[in-house]
Every structure is written in structure tokens, then in C-alpha cells.
Design brief:
Length: 232
């Protein structure tokens, strides 16, 4: 019996720059390892949903501004014949498969889905092609703390219901690592281990900086044993 061809109407857009490009904009120690791990985590999460997914880095993006590049990326997925697109980045390691599956379910009911981030932006957006107004989207206040509110207003003005997912943290600075690690406390995946190693390494450096030099010269304690595993 021939296999039944499964036709997908929804695809995932992973909009994420390469680790080399990320390093130009985010000064995080050992950022290359972190950003590569974040992208791998995002792709793995997308793959586990069973939906088709497409990774667009700066090599595939085009446009003069972030808004133009993002809108053009969404359009490229619709141009492949999909009715719905779910966009995610690589800077929200707390994102779960269940978040994307929930978004997909709401899209089938012709709703607009937004996963708001704590900084006023969003980590996930799900929309039907009928809700995609390229001009209105390009003019949104990208990279600001009013983005989520503004896009909600734009969509609701078209009498489309906006479904909001849980609020998650974006990883933009070194200070964000510690906060995000707390949100991953039930995880033991690769990205958890990467962030844990970065946080404990930073804490160890800071702690040693406050230890009097004379004490360090006369003690071997801080040169032995496991790294510090405390997270406040």
C-alpha cells in the first residue's frame, strides 16, 4: 500500500543569525559556543514538533532594516505554499515544543498567536497569510519595548483574535544568563549545560576577584575541587 502523503499547511521559520554575526552585536563571554548551542536548540525544538521548518540566517535574509529582513523572511515561507507561519528565534532557550504545538492549534482556528518576551518584544509569532500585511509589519517598532503591544493593536484592529502564550525571557546580555538558567532548572539538555558552565565560570571569576591576594597566595583551596554550583 503506497504511503499517504502528509500535506502541511503550517511551517516554522527559525529566524536566527549565525554565531559569527551574533558575536558582532552581543558581547557575551564564550559567545560562539553559546550562540551555536542556542541555534541547535531552536532547530531541535522545531524538529520535535513534526512540522516543516526553515532556518534563515543573515546569509538568506535580505532588506535594509531588521523589519524588512524579518518580513521578507516570513514572505519567503508563504511563497513556498504554506498557509500559516510560526516564527521563532534562537534567543529563548525556555521555549518548549508544547509552546509551538499550542500556537499551531490556535492557527487552525484562524487566530493570531504571540509569545511575548519580558522585554516587550516577542519570541514567537504565528499568523495566517490573510493576516500578513507587509507594509504594516515593516512599519512596526522593531527592537523596542512596545513591539508586542503595537502588533497586538494592529492585528486586533482587523477583528482577529490574538492569543498570547506565556511570557519568556530573551537572552541578549551576559546578565540574562543567570535569570534564564533558573527557568531551565528542570532541564538537563545541552543548552542547560552550556549556560550553566558560563554562569558558574563567571561567578568563580567574580568571587576570586574579591578574595584578598595574600589569602590566595597562601591557600590552595580555590585551585582544587569542582566549580562553584550556586545560583542566587
Amino acid at each position: 500500500m503506497p504511503e499517504t502523503l502528509k500535506i502541511f499547511t503550517t511551517a516554522i521559520l527559525v529566524f536566527a543569525n549565525s554565531s559569527e554575526e551574533e558575536l558582532k552585536h552581543k558581547a557575551i563571554p564564550k559567545g560562539s559556543v553559546l550562540f551555536q548551542g542556542l541555534t541547535e536548540h531552536a532547530i531541535s525544538t522545531a524538529k520535535k514538533t513534526g512540522l516543516p521548518y526553515f532556518l534563515l540566517t543573515e546569509k538568506e535574509q535580505y532588506g535594509n532594516s531588521f523589519g524588512e529582513r524579518f518580513v521578507n523572511a516570513i514572505k519567503s515561507i508563504f511563497d513556498k505554499g504554506f498557509d500559516n507561519v510560526i516564527t521563532i528565534g534562537n534567543d529563548t532557550p525556555q521555549l518548549k515544543v508544547s509552546d509551538i504545538v499550542k500556537a499551531s492549534g490556535n492557527l487552525s482556528a484562524n487566530k493570531f498567536v504571540l509569545g511575548p518576551s519580558s522585554d516587550g518584544g516577542f519570541y514567537l509569532m504565528g499568523l495566517h497569510k490573510s493576516q500578513f500585511d507587509t507594509k504594516a509589519f515593516v512599519e512596526l517598532p522593531w527592537k523596542t519595548n512596545t513591539l508586542a503591544k503595537k502588533i497586538t493593536t494592529v492585528i486586533e484592529s482587523s477583528n482577529v483574535r490574538v492569543i498570547q502564550l506565556r511570557v519568556l525571557l530573551d537572552l541578549d546580555t551576559n546578565a540574562d544568563l543567570k535569570r534564564i538558567l533558573k527557568g531551565l532548572n528542570n532541564s538537563r539538555g545541552k543548552i542547560f549545560q552550556i549556560i550553566l558552565s558560563l554562569v558558574t565560570s563567571t561567578q568563580k571569576i567574580i568571587l576570586q576577584a574579591y578574595i584578598p591576594l595574600s589569602f590566595r597566595l597562601n591557600s590552595t583551596y580555590f585551585n582544587k575541587g569542582s566549580p562553584f554550583h550556586f545560583i542566587n
